Amino acid sequence: KAEAEARERAQPARTRDGHRIAVGANVNNPEQVGFALDQGAEGVGLMRTEFLFLERGDTPSEDDQYETYSGMLRALGGRPLIVRTLDIGGDKQVAHLRLPHEENPFLGVRGARLLLRRPDLMEPQLRALYRAARDHVPADAPTGKDAPLSIMMPMITSVPEVLRLRAVAERIRGEVGAPPVPLGIMIEVPAAAIQADAMARHCDFFSIGTNDLTQYALAIDRQNTELAPEADSLHPAVLRLIHMTCEGAARHGRFVGVCGGIAGDPFGACLLAGLGVHELSMTPRDLAGVKARLRAADMGALRALARRACEQEDAAAVRALDDAGGPA
Ligand code: PEP
Ligand code: MG
If 0-12 CB within 10 Å is exposed, 13-18 middle and 19+ buried, where does residue 324 land? Predict the structure, then answer.
C-alpha cells in the first residue's frame, strides 16, 4: 500500500484532458529536498533565502551562501530550483542587520526596496548564486521554466525596480562568468499585477505571492489573527489580480507560478490552473492532495470554473463553487 501511494505521489499533475501543471515545493535548505521529492515535488518553486539570515546570529558570507545554493543544486540533481533573493522586512525582521525601525514595516523598506538600498546584502548573494550556476549547471541543461536554477526578486512594485535589479544581476553574472540564468519577479503587490504586461517585458517569469498579494489587495495585515478569516486568497478581487497577471505574462510568453499558501489548497489549485497558472509551489505535505485533485479535473471545466469565480461577489461565494458542481 505504501508503495502504491508513493507511485501515486510520483505521478505528474496532468488533467484528464492532458494539461500538465508543474508542481514544486517551498523548501529552504538542502536537508528538506529529499522529503519534498518523496512527496512528489518536481523541483523547488521557492527557496526563501531570508531563512539563511534568520537562522543564525550573523550575516552569511558569500562563500557560506555559495555552499548552500550548491548543496540545493546537488540535492535536486538538475530538477528546477527557483531561489528568491533576500526578502527582509515586514514580518521577517533580522536583528543583526540593524535595520531602522519603521511604523509600517509591511509598507516600508522590504524585499526589492531593501536590496536596491543595500548592495552589501544583494551583491554577495547574487555572486554566490551565479558562482553556483557557473560551477553546477551543465552547459547543455534545459533553459526556460525547466532551467536547473532561476533567480527571483521579491516585492516588486515598479518597472524601474526590475530594470535596476536586472542591471546589477547581469553585471555580476558577467563578472562571475556564469551562463544565462532566468530572472523572474514575485507578483505580490497589486501594482505589479495590474502592470503585469509591462513587467513581463523585462523579466523571464513570474511567481505570484498570494500571501502578500492578499494582504495588500484586501488591506489586511497577514499577521492579524482577528482578521485572518477575512484574509482569503480566493477573494474575487485577488483572483482578478491573478487573472491579470496571467494575461500580462501570456502576452510576452512568460510562465507564471504561484508560491503562496493557496497553491497548496486543492480547490485553490484548481482555480489557479483555470486562471492560467503553469506551476504551483507549496509546502511538501500539500503536494499529494493537490496533484490528486488536478489529475481528476478537466482543464476546460477549470477555465469555466475560474471565470465564474472571478464573477462572484465575495470569497464565500467562490468557496461555495467547490461543492456546486466543481470538479471532484
Ligand atoms: C507570498 O507572499 O505569498 C510568498 C510566497 O512570500 P512570503 O510568504 O515569503 O512573503
Ligand atoms: Mg511574500
Answer: exposed
